[in-house]
Design brief:
The two termini are about 25 Å apart. Helices cover about 85% and strands about 0% of the residues. By secondary structure, it is mostly helical.
Length: about 250
């Protein structure tokens, strides 16, 4: 399989984890406590992958200053975009309860939630494409981290969408569209930077990494803590350790 096509396929696979989570939420009534535990686990997995598989390797390739600059830039851009969408109804897009506004409560919130979900997913997909540029293959640890975190994201958000009267067409249209967009983002990330220097790839990778960490802190951990409370830190630590084990065994 051509590398550019592999990038798109792996991005699509990671995005389909969101659809899987949505399907579980739509078919079964999953307790909010269970969703919170899975969300906390997914947050820990992502944080570990960011630390060991993205930022550390980018620092080895480009040095501390470019990595720090890219990381902060990604976080700032994400937070700014998230603030705009939050004001239009997307603030609680990953909540499994009734915090999400319905279209009747806030007109345009459906579009804002969909765009917010897209904002959350694109940096992860870009990272997969960049991994192929840097190493010629997708990192198993990064792929596993993104997949394992996307399932609870789709699960929690879809439970909230269902609780607020969103239709199956809307829910699966959102996640199916994001899965396709994830594949395209990974493919474009690879094609755009396949001839770039290792330092440039590292810088772009850390931009995506900064956005991902901001997303974890702004959307995943609040949902987890809201329902898992005092065990949130422990479950997050377990997720971190699992992802580190995958990284260590793969290395």
């Amino acid at each position: 399989m051509p590398t550019w096509l592999a990038a798109g396929v792996w991005g699509l696979v990671a995005g389909l984890a969101l659809v899987l989570g949505a399907a579980v939420a739509w078919r079964f009534r999953v307790p909010r406590g269970a969703i919170a535990w899975v969300m906390a686990f997914g947050a820990g997995v992502l944080i570990s992958a960011l630390a060991f598989d993205l930022v550390a390797e980018a620092s080895d390739a480009a040095g501390l200053l470019p990595v720090a600059g890219g990381f902060l830039l990604g976080a700032v851009v994400y937070v700014a975009a998230d603030a705009v969408l939050s004001g239009r109804g997307a603030r609680h897009r990953k909540r499994s309860g009734t915090q999400q506004p319905s279209e009747q409560e806030q007109q345009g919130s459906g579009t804002a939630i969909a765009l917010g979900a897209l904002l959350d997913g694109i940096p992860e997909s870009v990272v997969l494409g960049l991994g192929l540029v840097a190493g010629g293959a997708v990192s198993p640890a990064v792929l596993a981290a993104i997949f394992l975190s996307n399932v609870p994201e789709g699960l929690s958000s879809s439970a909230g969408m269902k609780a607020n009267g969103r239709s199956a067409r809307y829910v699966f249209g959102v996640w199916g569209g994001i899965a396709v967009a994830s594949g395209i983002a990974a493919l474009v990330g690879y094609l755009a930077l396949r001839g770039a220097s290792p330092g440039s790839v590292a810088f772009i990778t850390t931009i995506a990494a900064g956005a991902i960490l901001a997303m974890v802190a702004d959307t995943m951990i609040p949902e987890a803590f809201d329902n898992a409370h005092v065990v949130t830190g422990l479950v997050t630590a377990v997720g971190f350790l699992v992802a580190f084990a995958i990284h260590d065994l793969g290395g």
